[in-house]
Design goal:
The chain has 162 residues and is an alpha/beta fold. Helix content is 41%, strand content 13%. The protein contains 7 helices and 6 strands; from the N terminus they run βαββαβαβααβαα. Helix 1 packs across helix 6. The longest helix is centred in the N-terminal third of the chain and has 14 residues. The relative contact order is 0.15. The mean pLDDT is 84.
């Protein structure tokens, strides 16, 4: 099952529409989406506006692939559950976010095992097809519940400078 989530703050119709269109073109029925307050209503996928926290956790635990925006909550949830994830950053120029912080975050994630970043809708569709065709390595690095030494050192340096 593919689980699509758009986060909890803003709609992300571009992502929902792209995955739903791909599902229709490929006659792929095993998709569940959390679409939030989006205007686009999927025609080819099961969807719900919002999931309670336990149901959200269960959806991630039971999926084979997660597709999401580049939000930290979504990324961490996928990594903690050891689920492969395809990410599409929201873009300020398209009115999807108030800044391009998600676009800037792509460089930090690119190349991590089990994490794929799409730059646009065409790449989302290509990645989905590669995944269901078994052409992608599904191994993912699990997220640690603790901060890395590198992060701790950076925070220490910042605090000392203040």
């Amino acid at each position: 099952m593919i689980f699509v989530t758009i986060g909890s703050m803003f709609p992300f119709d571009r992502l929902v529409r792209t995955v739903d269109r791909w599902a229709g073109h490929n006659n792929y029925k095993d998709i569940s989406m959390q679409i939030g307050a989006g205007a686009y209503l999927p025609q080819n996928s099961k969807w719900i506006r919002s999931l309670p926290p336990d149901d959200f956790s269960n959806a991630i635990r039971n999926c084979d692939l997660m597709v999401a925006h580049l939000g930290m909550g979504s990324i961490i949830s996928a990594m903690q559950a050891k689920k492969p994830v395809i990410l599409l950053p929201r873009r300020m120029s398209l009115g999807e976010a108030t800044s391009d912080h998600q676009v800037h975050g792509t460089e930090w994630l690119r190349g991590r095992p089990g994490v794929w970043v799409a730059n646009d809708e065409r790449e989302i569709e290509e990645l989905l097809t590669s995944f269901i065709d078994g052409k992608m390595n599904h191994a993912i690095d699990a997220a640690s519940p603790y901060a890395s030494i590198e992060l701790i050192d950076k925070v220490r340096s910042f605090v000392r400078a203040v």
